[in-house]
Write a structure and sequence with these properties.
With about 280 residues, the protein is an alpha/beta fold. It has one domain (about 35-60, about 80-270): P-loop containing nucleotide triphosphate hydrolases (Rossmann fold), CATH 3.40.50.300. It is built from nine helices and ten strands. The chain has a six-stranded mixed β-sheet, sandwiched between helices. A four-stranded antiparallel β-sheet has the order 2-1-4-5, with helices on one face. The longest helix is centred in the middle third of the chain and has 16 residues, at about 180-195. Bound molecules: adenosine-5'-diphosphate and magnesium ion. Adenosine-5'-diphosphate binds near residues 17, 22, 24, 42 and 50.
């Protein structure tokens, strides 16, 4: 039987800003299993981002239990939560959240700073990841010098920096044109084919067809949870949207052996911690 990597019981979230009390999540029970590709849909304001931020260890629930690989994380301190996040979860945002003054390569290398990876290796690995996502010629570019699709690929490379088994994304195609969206979804499909667990929020039904399981959230409750027997799979990108186009074949090759194990082993043995808390 497959392992539940994420196990939620009675998760609630209520925002309190002074006298304003906003209950958003009302008690969510959910198991997500290793290797699943789950989409979460729902109307604007239904609590998708709130839920995703809790799943991604960017925020804590107000009550309930969240077990990640069997470990209770609902009650961890900020620093403990940041540590868990940096090690186990790669998070991709709608607005990319790249640091504008850092090059693509340095943006991708950043989570490895927090993980204590030596500089030379972080540079090499960041270059490797970017190259594997079709951005080998863009290492020294600043985010402002890249297209939206390219920025999102940099953000995906950054999410992969520490070789997490879980990739989470909140509307990752929300700011992209349809061809770049397919590029990005092909990359997620390849990550799924590699055995990673993917959780993705979207409001686009087309994007949800890439997932193996479709969940619908409404008013802070899960109102639908179905397997998708007709996953979209890798799609052909009709024409290059940018100077570097990722064909399904390239994307497949790209993400196949995306992480040289030597790097991850090094991370575990060489704890030369140079930084504090990761926010990526
Ligand atoms: N920090 C916050 N403080 C107060 N209310 C919030 C905060 N963040 C989100 N909300 C409210 O929670 C509800 C759900 O928001 P959100 O999770 O962003 O929904 P979605 O991502 O589905 O659009 C909305 O009513 C929103 O206004
Ligand atoms: Mg949202």
């Amino acid at each position: 039987m497959k392992q539940a990597v994420i196990s939620l019981e009675g998760i609630t979230k209520t925002y309190v800003n002074g006298k304003l009390v906003v209950p958003v999540l009302h008690g969510i029970d959910l198991n997500i299993y290793e290797g699943e590709f789950t989409s979460i849909m729902g109307p604007s304001g239904s609590g998708k981002s709130t839920f995703m931020n809790i799943l991604g260890c960017l925020d804590r629930p107000t009550s309930g239990s969240y077990k990640l690989d069997g470990e209770e994380v609902a009650t961890l301190s900020d620093d403990e939560l940041a540590f868990v996040r940096n090690k186990r979860i790669g998070f991709v945002f709608q607005s990319f959240n790249l640091l504008p003054k850092l090059t693509a390569q340095d943006n991708v290398a950043l989570p490895m700073v927090y993980a204590g990876v030596p500089k030379k290796e972080r540079k090499e690995r960041a270059a490797y990841l970017l190259d594997s996502l079709g951005l080998g010629e863009r290492l020294d570019h600043l985010p402002a010098e890249l297209s939206g699709g390219q920025r999102q690929r940099v953000a995906i490379a950054r999410a992969l920096a520490n070789d997490p088994s879980i990739i989470m994304a909140d509307e990752p195609t929300g700011n992209l044109d349809s061809k770049s969206s397919v590029d990005v979804m092909n990359i997620f499909t390849n990550l799924y084919n590699e055995g990673r667990t993917i959780i993705l929020v979207t409001h686009e039904p087309d994007i949800a067809t890439f997932a193996s399981r479709n969940i619908v959230l409404r008013d802070g409750y899960i109102v639908e949870d179905k397997q998708n027997p007709n996953m979209a799979g890798l799609q052909t990108v009709q024409a290059p949207t940018e100077s570097v186009a990722v064909s399904p074949a390239t994307a497949q090759k790209a993400v196949k052996s995306v992480i040289p194990k030597t790097v991850t082993e090094k991370v575990n043995t060489e704890q030369t911690n140079e930084g504090g808390t990761s926010h990526v």
